[in-house]
């Protein structure tokens, strides 16, 4: 349900203004940080399989150039509009700043329902969109680096990089013009699950904070926490996977067609397969069907993870939500009214602007890999294994006992690319959560974690502008 009072971009700006009042920054500098620097709205014709020509509406927004390149996904959705793309680009600026990824915020969108087009038509639309971006210098490893988003994935990114390389022959770093590519095309292992894994690392870190959990009547840690997830797409699926593996219970899952509940826990993978086979999560064996899909938000649980679309929790349904912690895996799932209600209720909202930054963090690793032209782990894997082997041999020689086979195997294991990606993402999320929490604790007048996150982001972007010499 959309917010009746604010557009998505206005909601982001409202949150920005709220946080800006807790800084002592120059008004002009704040206006510059807040503004979208470049908005490219385009129309282009595409010939469909039936011979008809359709004019496609598309966008690319570069919110901030305090760091380059700009970074942000491209979404394919019938609801795409300029306001939404501007809002998402702004959130990317703040997100990158919080997780210390040196990009400016960007975002793209094509106003189509991808389900209504053939693969060949989608390829033509994607390649033409890329061509339009190249014409106006809105894509490139040093200017603007897109990524997957709602309705896009590795396939579309492969089409983009191929189009770019075709039009820019001989450009050494061309593979870095887009991230989220298949591994065979210069992608990085671990990118697919990155956002869901980042959500897990971020919420896990919050759940380990004894003082915060005590305030909300929860025990510290992930184990046995009851989790409700709205959305079983890429982010929702991997969030469910990592929470389940850590010992939490997924008690409710909501999707477009409805919601299901089981207080003893749902097998997320079995639900996913059931949906693939039947086209719906409803009537899953052993689960109770809920009346409507939004009911998944209101079940009795410890942690609620909205992982689908924006504005799903608003002033109308927020009073009925029972979760003690809400982790915003989607972009903008709460309206400003909902935020105010949760502040009154003492619900801890872990905001989207850094919680779902796993995707851009691992995209950053992919971009660095493309620029260095070396796969992660290639240089140190064998060296680490050989060193560990020497240590194990010495331990066995000194103790006179052999090390257990499985233990030996685990200790010997040198880091693969995916191990290094997971490790870098874990470090990034833990640092971000603690920076935001420290800001909140050191400024008791800040009302919630979202405002604290904005304060951290605004301060970091302001420092960048100051270092560029643009503002004193």
Question: What's the quick description here?
Answer:
With 472 residues, the protein is α/β, with parallel strands linked by helices.
Care to describe what's here?
The chain is of the alpha/beta class and 472 residues long. It has two domains: 286 residues, Rossmann fold (3-Layer(aba) Sandwich), CATH 3.40.50; 147 residues, Leucine Dehydrogenase, chain A, domain 1 (Rossmann fold). 45% of the residues lie in helices and 14% in strands. The strands form two sheets. It has a seven-stranded mixed β-sheet with strand order 9-8-7-6-10-11-12, sandwiched between helices. A five-stranded mixed β-sheet has the order 1-2-4-3-5. Strand 6, helix 8 and strand 7 form a beta-alpha-beta unit. Helix 3 packs across helix 16, helix 6 packs across helix 12 and helix 15 packs across helix 16. The two termini are 43 Å apart. The model has no long low-confidence stretch (mean pLDDT 90).
Produce the secondary structure layout:
Elements: H1 8-20, H2 27-34, E1 38-47, E2 53-62, E3 70-76, H3 82-98, E4 104-110, H4 119-135, E5 144-148, H5 154-167, H6 194-207, H7 210-215, E6 226-230, H8 234-245, E7 249-255, E8 258-261, H9 268-278, E9 288-290, E10 303-306, E11 325-327, H10 336-345, E12 348-350, H11 352-355, H12 358-372, H13 381-399, H14 405-412, H15 417-442, H16 449-468
Parallel strand pairs: 3-4, 3-5, 6-7, 6-10, 10-11, 11-12
Antiparallel strand pairs: 1-2, 2-4, 7-8, 8-9
């Amino acid at each position: 349900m959309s917010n009746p009072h604010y557009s998505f971009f206005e909601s982001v700006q409202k949150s920005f203004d709220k946080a800006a009042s807790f800084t002592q920054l120059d008004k002009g500098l704040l206006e510059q940080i807040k503004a979208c620097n470049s908005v490219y709205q385009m129309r282009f014709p595409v010939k469909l399989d039936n011979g008809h020509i359709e004019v496609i509406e598309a966008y690319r927004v570069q919110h901030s150039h305090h760091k380059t390149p700009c970074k942000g996904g491209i979404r394919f959705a019938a609801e795409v509009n300029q306001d939404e793309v501007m809002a998402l680009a702004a959130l990317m600026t703040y997100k990158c700043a919080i997780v210390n990824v040196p990009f400016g915020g960007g975002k793209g969108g094509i106003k189509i329902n991808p389900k209504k087009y053939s693969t060949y038509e989608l390829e033509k639309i994607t390649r033409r969109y890329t061509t339009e971006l190249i014409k106006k210098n809105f894509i490139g490893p040093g200017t603007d680096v897109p990524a997957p988003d709602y309705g896009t994935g590795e396939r579309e990114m492969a089409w983009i990089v191929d189009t770019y390389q075709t039009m820019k022959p001989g450009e050494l770093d061309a593979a870095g013009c887009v991230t989220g590519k298949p591994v065979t095309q210069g992608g990085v292992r671990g990118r697919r699950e990155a956002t869901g894994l980042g959500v897990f690392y971020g919420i896990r870190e919050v759940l380990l904070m004894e003082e915060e959990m005590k305030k909300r009547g929860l025990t510290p840690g992930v184990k046995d926490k009851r989790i409700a997830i709205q959305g079983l797409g890429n982010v929702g699926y991997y969030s469910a996977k990592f929470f389940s593996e850590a010992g939490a219970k997924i008690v409710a899952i909501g999707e477009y067609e409805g919601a299901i509940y089981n207080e003893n826990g749902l097998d997320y993978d079995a639900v996913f397969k059931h949906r693939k086979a039947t086209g719906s999560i409803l009537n899953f064996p052993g689960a109770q069907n809920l009346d409507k899909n939004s009911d998944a938000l209101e079940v009795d649980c410890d942690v609620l993870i909205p992982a689908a679309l924006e504005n799903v929790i608003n002033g109308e349904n927020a009073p009925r939500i029972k979760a003690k912690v809400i982790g915003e895996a989607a972009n903008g799932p709460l309206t400003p009214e909902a935020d105010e209600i949760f502040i009154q209720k003492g619900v801890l909202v872990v905001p989207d602007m850094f919680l779902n930054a796993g995707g851009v963090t691992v995209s950053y690793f992919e971009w660095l890999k493309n620029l260095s032209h070396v796969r992660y782990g290639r240089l140190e894997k064998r060296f680490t294994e050989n060193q560990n082997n020497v240590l194990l041999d010495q331990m066995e020689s000194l103790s006179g006992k052999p090390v257990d086979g499985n233990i030996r195997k685990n200790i010997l294991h040198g880091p693969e690319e995916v191990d290094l990606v997971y490790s870098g993402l874990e470090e990034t999320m833990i640092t971000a959560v603690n920076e935001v929490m420290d800001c909140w604790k050191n400024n008791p007048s800040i009302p919630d974690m979202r405002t604290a996150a904005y304060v951290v982001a605004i301060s970091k972007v302001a420092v960048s502008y100051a270092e560029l010499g643009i503002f004193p």
